[in-house]
Amino acid sequence: MAPAVFLLLVWMLVPLITTLFFSFKKYLPLRGDELGKGLDWVGFENYSRFLNSSSFWPSVQTTLLIVGSVLVITVVLGVLLALLLDQPMWGQGIVRILIISPFFVMPTVSALVWKNMFMDSNYGLFAHLWRFFGAEPVQWLSQSSIESIIMIVSWQWLPFATLILLTAIQSLDSEQLEASEMDGAPVLKRFWYIILPHLGRAITVVILIQTIFLLAVFAEIFVTTGGAFGSRTLTYLIFQRVLESQNVGLGSAGGVYAIILANIVALFLMRIVGKNLDQ
Length: 279
Fold this sequence. Notes:
Distance between the termini: 32 Å
CATH class: Mainly Alpha
Largest sheet: 2 strands, antiparallel
CATH superfamily: MetI-like
Mean pLDDT: 84
Number of domains: 1
Order of helices and strands: HEEHHHHHHHHHHHHH
Radius of gyration: 23 Å
CATH topology: MetI-like fold
């Protein structure tokens, strides 16, 4: 395993060390600074500027709002879809493939599809539905930008949650459900006292894995709103500082903040997962 571990460490450590190096430097490549020249040591000035900027805390709040909303939607709908797909039906295999297929679509492609085919205020499907019911079409990407991004990202991650939860449901001992049914337990009580506790570990794993990736949501925002209308996350703010403002030092400090935030959330979730697995 040593070669694989070595490559993985190099793949992770080189960008991290580079980010830490530039975060303490003043590096403006499009303003006359060349790599190796003009890299003035500024200490924690970049960290202070990034933390005290008017965009930092709103971007953190937007990031946490998107992550929390997507987790709630995918877990709740994932449980319902998993229960539905576990029932015998005609064409069950085809239905499962269709439900899982959005997970294999690239984020950029899915965002473009939602932007042009569904959310376009003139020709989108939602606009036609609104006009059909006599209502004025909604400017989704400007009036409801956060809700639009949550909808797009939830559509992408729902198949993942459904697949994990469906696997967990299928591993449930059917004798327990049959015994509870013979004892006259209602459907809701069978779900609440038997199925849901059995799904506890699967739900925690889904939350942990999705959170790690959702904290870095970028493509959907870049393609749809471009960070406007209050939809700028911490990842997108770093992108703007590095590539649009060409302030590599300031953006690197933001990257360190993003790493710290991700580790705090990951440690918090790992404690929850650990307690659940111990039970």
